[in-house]
Amino acid sequence: APLVALRGVSKRFGNGTLAVRDVDLDLAAGEFVSLLGPSGCGKSTLLRMIAGLGAPSAGTIAWPGRDEGAAGRGFDLGFVFQDPTLMPWANALANVMLPLTLKKVPRGEAEARAAEMLALVGLAGFERAYPRELSGGMKMRVSIARALVMKPRILLMDEPFAALDEITRHRLNNDLLELWAHERFTAVFVTHSVFESVYLSQRIVVMAARPGRVMADLPVDAPYPRN
Ligand code: ADP
Ligand code: ADP
């Protein structure tokens, strides 16, 4: 069974805007999918509905595969926004610990898991650094570590690297692929960059033209290690 199954999903906002129209989409466990399309085509709205942030106005979003092959994995989902949204008064470690603290994981264990996650995103040694001391790319790494620290089945990313310079962005793309291969979450990556979608994903879902519609669903055969 697919991990997530969307059927006839539409979203009309209170002001009348029909942001998503009649989307059918299955996401398989472990795949790396991009949602590609120009600004305003409904990518964020669709991603947010998958995350449970805003209900569809029509259609259903089901999780038929949620209990399959989930050993050692909670059902939490991770969400990464374009803005890293870190707590400025807390250091990198404390920022990554937040989801564990909210789930009442004991402090020692939470610190160890957060430190391990920071190391995985390339920030070993920066545990005590505050957000203001970190570059944009490093803040994004902290944000990704925080999203992954609960070992979610699925990581939803909404144009996470769009505000970063090209070199930083390229490094983060490479490191994200390594992290995905290592941690084996399902990745859904919203972008308006054709390059980024081809480079990162196994599959590209194109939203365009008539806003809110899925126009194409394409497999990608990229020369990159795949699961
Ligand atoms: P994308 O992520 O592809 O840029 P969005 O999903 O953000 O597109 O937006 C799709 C459309 O829905 C746009 O026309 C946008 O202005 C509109 N929209 C998004 N959020 C809201 C909202 N909360 N209320 C009304 N319209 C919205
Ligand atoms: P993005 O560039 O990622 O698509 P936007 O700038 O379109 O983001 O949207 C930023 C925030 O404003 C989102 O929470 C979105 O839901 C909301 N939003 C976007 N368009 C509208 C709109 N027309 N009316 C109300 N809220 C909107």
Automatic annotation (TrEMBL):
- Highest taxon of the lineage: Bacteria
Tell me which residues make up the ABC transporter domain.
Answer: 4-227
Q: Which GO terms describe its molecular function?
A: ATP binding
List the keywords (alphabetical).
ATP-binding, Nucleotide-binding, Transport
Its family remark reads: Belongs to the ABC transporter superfamily.
Entry protein name: ABC transporter ATP-binding protein
Instruction: List the taxonomic lineage.
Output: Bacteria, Pseudomonadati, Pseudomonadota, Alphaproteobacteria, Hyphomicrobiales
Placed within the complete protein, the shown segment runs 18 to 244 of 270
